[in-house]
Amino acid sequence: MTANKWFLSFLKKYKWKMALGLLLTTLISVLAIVNPYISGLIVDNVIIGGEFSLLPKLIITLLAVTAVRGILRFYYQVIFETCSQGVLYEMRDKVYRKLLQEDFAFYNKKRTGDLMSRQTGDMDAIRHFVAYVIYSVYENILLFGFALIMIFTVDVKLALCMLAVLPFTALTTYLQSKAVKPAFQRNRNCFSSLNAFVQENVSGNRVVKAFAKEEFEISKFNKENDAFRASQLDASKVWMKYLPIFEMLSNLLTIILMLYGGYMVIQEKISMGNLVTVNGYLWMLTVPLRMAGWWVNDIQRFTTSVEKIYDTYIEEPNVKSPQSGIDRKHFDGKVEFRNVSYRADDEEIVNDINFTVPPGQTVGIIGSTGAGKSTIMNLLCRFYDATGGEVLVDGINVKDLDLYDLRDNIGMAMQDVFLFSDTIEGNIAYAKPDCPFEEVKQAAIMADANHFIQSLPDGYDTIVGERGVGLSGGQKQRISLARALLKDPAILILDDTTSAVDMETESYIQEQLKKIEKDCTIFIIAYRISSIRDADLILVMDNGRIIERGTHDELVAMNGYYASAFRNQYGEIPEEVKGGASHGTK
Ligand SMILES: Nc1ncnc2c1ncn2[C@@H]1O[C@H](COP(=O)(O)OP(=O)(O)OP(=O)(O)O)[C@@H](O)[C@H]1O
Ligand SMILES: [Mg+2]
After folding, report:
1. Tens-place pLDDT, residues 340-391
2. Ligand 1 neighbourhood includes 289 CB (under 6 angstroms)
3. CA-CA distance, 115 to 99, in Å (whole number)?
4. Could you tell me the residue ranges of all domains in the chain?
5. Whose CA is nearest to atom 10 of ligand 1?
6. 202 Cα–ligand 1 center, Å
């Protein structure tokens, strides 16, 4: 499918409405020929011929035609506006749904501001096209055609003279449309880029302030702003070059009429009334010629926007739900990685990952930064697909499971906490918006968030700003944990979730997690040994591989990476721990 066909598929639904609109437009155009004709009759029969009795009838017809045209114009404009809003509504909806289906890889490389301009500026170019350009071009082509026909009926030679202008107009239109297209494409790109820049700077405003980089950002913004202005001016330079030509061609018609028409009246080849009639048709020829340049602009803006939206729309996510995925609403929570590897951009991210976790066990994952800890959890949730080996949940390859069932069974508190600009209750109840407040509170209690939430002036109704502005790092982490817990998932993933909370809070949360431990497989990614020391299995990762595995005691006894991390965090290892006997080290 091409971009234009895709656009037409939206228009299809409105074809009868559009047809009615075009029919009304045709009627209006036909009626446009009546008034100049009557004006001619008034000159020839009333003013020159002296038949004054005809005047009232002719005047009433003039007024009636004008009134009917006004009413019809109102109706067809409403029709086209309604169609444009309908098309836009469906297109926005479809594009938005597709955006939600896109995977992490898509969002990694796209700029938010860029995607936003698809939904705003580009959509508006389409609305303008459907609401205005379609009928306007159609009406003016009809007016032009009808006017020519009427002039032909008055005098063929005069009509032919006026027609001679047409090839020049066609050529100018073609040349302008060719010249303006690249300028418009550049213009749309600059608009997106400016949008993306502003969006990033507004979101990252705190970093800009912290580094006192306002001046630097302003100079960067000026560059974007200059580029956008230059691209606008480039486009306007094109039409500045061509508009005078359109203007000249339309004035040429008036000159032809005045010179040749006047000459014919003097020669008595046509009547004065005929000249008035043709003069009345003149606007029907000149307006389309004058407007041609603008339509070229509008049409190019429209096609560029459709292409841009369509290009985003057709990007298929790599991670998709299988056609007939295995239906499994409730998981036991067994997780198995078999020789799993993941490569991205020709770079090995994780390799040779093997482990099995029976339902209800807790796994701790520890390791250096960038070791691949979050990546293996991303593979489990199918945010990315493993490039080698198999990730299995309850013995089934995750690729064969319905994607939404899989994710429905996983509760994840992500490393990069994101909160919506909503109430705290709304954020916690994100997975279960209709659940009773008691459940929300219970989840908050488990995440040790209830206390601080209640101390806020609006409690659970406190609106947290965009991305949770106004909350501390640890508070955000606890809300994110409560959100994951409320899901009551079969698999719970806590990626660095307690890194910003104090030790006391962490041990409280650990106690709470013990309550759900038997019904839930828990993965805890952490740097602090204290976060994972009680886990049934600890995986130590480095450089994309599991380098050590076992329980806390086994790993300490191994005297490798884990033991040295333990020593760094706790000082020297007491003798009894070296022996693998105790958990009591402080
Ligand atoms: N989709 C991706 N495309 C390219 N590189 C990626 C991708 N995902 C992860 N990486 C890279 O893989 C490495 C491991 O990333 P990962 O986020 O898994 O580390 P981590 O162990 O969670 O680190 P941290 O403890 O700092 O959170 C990093 O170097 C990261 O840049
Ligand atoms: Mg990580």
Report:
1. 999 988 899 999 999 999 999 999 999 989 999 999 999 999 999 999 999 9
2. no
3. 9
4. 3-313
5. 349
6. 26
Nearest-atom index, ligand 1, CA of 104: 1
User: Alpha helices, DSSP H only, in 102-210?
Assistant: 104-109, 112-117, 123-128, 134-154, 156-163, 166-203, 205-210
Residue 416 beta carbon below 6 angstroms from any ligand 1 atom: no
Atom of ligand 1 nearest to the CA of 105: 1
Nearest Cα to Cα of residue 361 among 508, 478, 542, 490: 490
> Do 79 and 24 meet the contact criterion of CB atoms below 8 Å apart?
yes
Place of tokens 């806390």: 552
Cα–Cα distance for residue pair 468/418, rounded to 1 Å? 7
Whose tokens are 């956008």? That residue is 228
Closest CA to 157 of 48, 274, 32, 287: 274
**Nearest Cα to Cα of residue 296 among 109, 136, 468:** 136
Residue 170 CA to residue 167 CA, distance in Å, equals: 5
* CB-ligand 1 contact for 370 (6 Å cutoff): yes
Q: Is the pTM of this model over 0.85?
A: no
* CA gyration radius, the chain: 36
In angstroms, the CA 418 to CA 479 distance is 10
477: CA distance to ligand 1 center in Å? Answer: 20
Following CA atoms 346, 352, 358, 361 in sequence, which dihedral angle do they give, to the nearest 10 degrees?
-80
**Position in ligand 1 atom list of the atom nearest CA 371:** 21
- Residues whose CB is under 5 A from ligand 2 (ion)? 374, 415
Query: Is any ligand 1 atom within 6 A of the Cβ of residue 369?
Result: yes
Q: Is 344 in the pocket of ligand 1 (CB under 6 A)?
A: yes
Query: What pLDDT digit, counting tens, does each position of 272-312 carry?
Result: 999 899 888 888 888 887 788 778 888 988 998 999 999 99
Q: Using the atom order of ligand 1, give the atom closest to the CA of residue 108.
A: 1
CATH architecture, range 3-313 = Up-down Bundle (1.20)
Under DSSP, is residue 547 helix (H, G, I), strand (E, B) or coil?
strand
CA atoms within 13 A on the CB side of 84: 21
